[in-house]
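// run 5 | inverse folding | seed 20
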């Protein structure tokens, strides 16, 4: 469905009832093909939920989606963005692998 909607020029800035975009949904579904398609179509990889300030990267880090975190970082997601409660993806990292991925970026300044 995502590929069809992209082909039909669907609005990439559409949000669900919770204020999340399609990238968030693809990350929730842990669907790397949909994540890639949305990123290549130009979705805002650093979109922040208006209610929480969370990004797809923050969500993925906090929910243990290691492959999604790697994919988002490789695509240029900003690990320094903060939620409205002042938490970054690193602060909310829920696995050792995610912690290592994100702390390496913070230490190197990338």
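// decoded
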């Amino acid at each position: 469905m995502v590929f069809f909607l992209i082909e039909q020029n669907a609005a990439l800035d559409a949000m669900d009832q919770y204020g999340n975009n399609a990238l968030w949904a693809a990350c929730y579904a842990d669907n790397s093909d949909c994540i890639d398609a949305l990123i290549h179509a130009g979705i805002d990889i650093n979109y922040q939920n208006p209610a929480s300030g969370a990004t797809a990267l923050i969500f993925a880090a906090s929910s243990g989606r290691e492959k999604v975190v790697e994919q988002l970082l490789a695509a240029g997601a900003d690990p320094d963005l903060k939620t409205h409660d002042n938490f970054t993806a690193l602060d909310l990292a829920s696995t050792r692998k995610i912690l290592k991925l994100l702390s390496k970026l913070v230490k190197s300044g990338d």
